[in-house]
Structures are given as structure tokens and as C-alpha cells.
């Protein structure tokens, strides 16, 4: 179970890096914020790419499992940063996505 929490934490950190890296350019383009926000955006996306390399499994499987955590973190971002109330459908969808992440991430190891 500790492995799942560690993996989930790494996925969550990875998701935050990706969201920040995409949200800052969105602010520049949609809300006419300073172009200087593109500098931390680029750094955040570089951190995102680096964080993905820390995951112990094949890239495709990592991306598939990561997607579940990304959905949950994006909804937390929607609530906390954008101030939009989550619906029960948002919460249920995030729960399903997290279960999917756990199934993919915790599958038994197979030999090649």
C-alpha cells in the first residue's frame, strides 16, 4: 500500500507540473497576462517531462496510469484555482479514473 501512495504522490506532482505548464500560457493567450509567464511555464513543462522519467514502468503504461491521476488533479485545480464547484459527476469520474490508475499501476509484474 505504501507503494501506491508513493506512486500516487509522484503522479500528482507530475500532474501539477503539467497543469501549471499549460495554465500559464493559457493566461498569457486568453487573459493577456505578461509574456514573462511563459518562462515558468517552460520550466514547469521541463519538470513535467523529467518527473515522467522517474516512474518505474514502461512509458506507455506510465502515461496510461498517469492519466487517471491527471483527471483528479485537474478537477482539484478547477475547484481550488478556478473556483468552480465540482459536481457529483466530476467526483465520480475522478474516482473511476483513480481506480483505473491503481489497476494499471499495481498489476502483477510479468517476465518478458
Automatic annotation (TrEMBL):
Predominant location of this chain? membrane
Q: Key word Transmembrane helix present in the record?
A: yes
Offer a single GO CC term for the protein.
plasma membrane
Q: For this UniProt entry, which segments traverse the membrane?
A: 33-51, 63-80, 86-106
Q: Which InterPro entries match?
A: EmrE-like, UPF0060
Alphabetized, the UniProt keywords read: Cell membrane, Membrane, Transmembrane, Transmembrane helix
Q: How does it sit in the bilayer?
A: Multi-pass membrane protein
Task: List, alphabetically, the PANTHER family matched.
Answer: UPF0060 MEMBRANE PROTEIN YNFA
NCBIfam families the record matches: PRK02237.1
Its protein name is: Uncharacterized protein
What's the source species for this entry?
A: Thauera terpenica 58Eu
